[in-house]
Amino acid sequence: MDNKVIQLEQKQRAYAQLTEVKTQFAARGWFPGTSGNLSVRVGDFHPEQFTFAITASGKDKAVHTPEDYLLVDQNGKPVEATGLKPSAETSIHCEIYRLTGCGAIFHVHTVFNNLVSELYWDRGSIPVDGVELIKAFNIWDEEAQIEIPIVPNYADVPTIAPLLEGAMKPRIPGIMLRKHGIYAWGADAFEAKRHLEAFEFLSEYAYRLYLARK
Ligand SMILES: CSC[C@@H](O)[C@@H](O)C(=O)COP(=O)(O)O
Ligand SMILES: [Zn+2]
């Protein structure tokens, strides 16, 4: 098959996956005030060259339009002529793909992820001990103890990306931005969604446990 046809099919598949996830997360109220962004990688991966489909900036993610997504390259630049602006946080997606080679990245702002990112800010990570849902990260140790890393949030988004590499923890497919939200990733959209849902569950658990112990 013609390369162009293959690329068009890959793009359409990525857009369809984004719409499915966007619909489900929107129904849970995970995109308040146009917050959040989603991306799915398209085609081959090389740390210095890759392409991904990402949500356009500032859209109401509970509404579906033909202008919801665009394709960008490893530098976050659109690869096709478009009037759409990629997410303001595209540089974070670029860096996560470059570092992990993952296939999808989902970002949401919720009250629970904001709360725990602040409560555990001084520690630099959110501890979770022995909770069953840790297995969603493919961590099967008995009474596994994990730490979900937290990085600072800056208004100048491109200054956040260089902090990710030093903060990421092996085996933990996500990172918290202080008083901002969670980024979760996976080999594909299915896995990234499972990881994000687990982070949300564990954020609520960590917050409620913190209160219960006070
Ligand atoms: C409107 S508050 C949220 C934004 O500042 C940002 O953090 C966010 O997640 C969405 O930005 P976007 O440019 O639409 O991808
Ligand atoms: Zn955000």
UniProtKB/TrEMBL annotation:
Lineage of producing organism: Bacteria, Bacillati, Bacillota, Bacilli, Bacillales
Name of the top EC class for this enzyme: lyase
Domain Class II aldolase/adducin N-terminal: 16-207
Annotated family: Belongs to the aldolase class II family. MtnB subfamily.
Keywords associated with the record: Amino-acid biosynthesis, Lyase, Metal-binding, Methionine biosynthesis, Zinc
Gene3D superfamilies: Class II aldolase/adducin N-terminal domain (3.40.225.10)
Function per UniProt: Catalyzes the dehydration of methylthioribulose-1-phosphate (MTRu-1-P) into 2,3-diketo-5-methylthiopentyl-1-phosphate (DK-MTP-1-P).
Key word Glycosyltransferase present: no
InterPro entries (alphabetical): Aldolase_II/adducin_N, Aldolase_II/adducin_N_sf, MethylthioRu-1-P_deHdtase_MtnB
Protein name: Methylthioribulose-1-phosphate dehydratase
SUPFAM superfamilies: AraD/HMP-PK domain-like
Phosphoprotein in keyword set: no
Residues annotated as binding Zn(2+): 107, 109
Pathway assigned in UniProt: Amino-acid biosynthesis; L-methionine biosynthesis via salvage pathway; L-methionine from S-methyl-5-thio-alpha-D-ribose 1-phosphate: step 2/6
Annotated catalysed reactions: 5-(methylsulfanyl)-D-ribulose 1-phosphate = 5-methylsulfanyl-2,3-dioxopentyl phosphate + H2O
Cofactor(s) essential for the protein: Zn(2+)
